[in-house]
Structure formats: C-alpha cells, structure tokens
C-alpha cells in the first residue's frame, strides 16, 4: 500500500536496450534471452499504461555498461510514481 503523497520507484528495461529483440520473443516486448532470462522491455507508452493507477509518473532513462558475455550497454528507465489522492494504491 502507498499512503497519500507516497512515492514509489521502479527500474525497468527499455526497448532501446541492446538486448531487446535478441533471443526468443514470447510476447509483446517479452523476450527470453540467450541465457534463458525472461525480460519485459518497456517503452514510454507501456510505462504510462502499466502505472496509470498513480496520480503522477516521472520517467527518466539511464544507461550502464556491463561486461558479462561481452562489453555492452543496458538502457533502463527509472520511474517515479506519486500518489496524491486519498485512495489507497496497491502495488
């Protein structure tokens, strides 16, 4: 539950990530990569839809370099969700 004026943060993978569409597609934006990891890749529209229960959403991107398997860059979203009303949000 999130109280009035509560804030929740989420980090998700972006469909701009190098790994997006590498591996087996098992759904819309849902990929099983070469290591067998199932991962959903968001875009801004899917974030707005998924997190629409919140009163305000702030979306930013960040990248990070990884060296597992090979040197590559992951593109991610950090999502700040804010509840302003009196209703209770269940996350």
Descriptive report:
- It is built from one helix and six strands, in the order E-E-E-E-H-E-E.
- With 91 residues, the chain is mainly beta.
- The protein has a single domain, classed as Rossmann fold.
- A six-stranded mixed β-sheet has the order 2-3-4-1-6-5.
- The longest helix has 7 residues, at 44-50.
- 12% of the residues are buried.
Low-confidence stretches: none
Global morphology: elongated
Q: What number of domains? A: 1
Helix content: under 10%
Q: Tell me what the CATH architecture is.
A: 3-Layer(aba) Sandwich
Strand content range: over 45%
Q: Tell how many strands the DSSP assignment holds.
A: 6
* Total number of helices: 1
Secondary-structure class: mainly beta
CATH 4th-level superfamily: Vaccinia Virus protein VP39
CATH class: Alpha Beta
Biggest sheet: strands, sense, closure? 6 strands, mixed
Sequence of strands across the biggest β-sheet: 2-3-4-1-6-5
What is the typical, i.e. mean, pLDDT? 90
Instruction: Tell me the Rg in angstroms.
Output: 15 Å
Q: Which descriptors apply to this entry?
A:
91 residues, Rossmann fold, mainly beta, 6 strands
What's the SSE blueprint?
Blueprint: E1 7-14, E2 24-27, E3 30-32, E4 38-42, H1 44-50, E5 56-66, E6 72-82
Parallel strand pairs: 1-4
Antiparallel strand pairs: 1-6, 2-3, 3-4, 5-6
Q: Quick recap of the structure?
A:
The protein has 91 residues and is mainly beta. The protein has 1 helix and 6 strands, in the order ββββαββ. The protein has a single domain, classed as 3-Layer(aba) Sandwich (Rossmann fold).
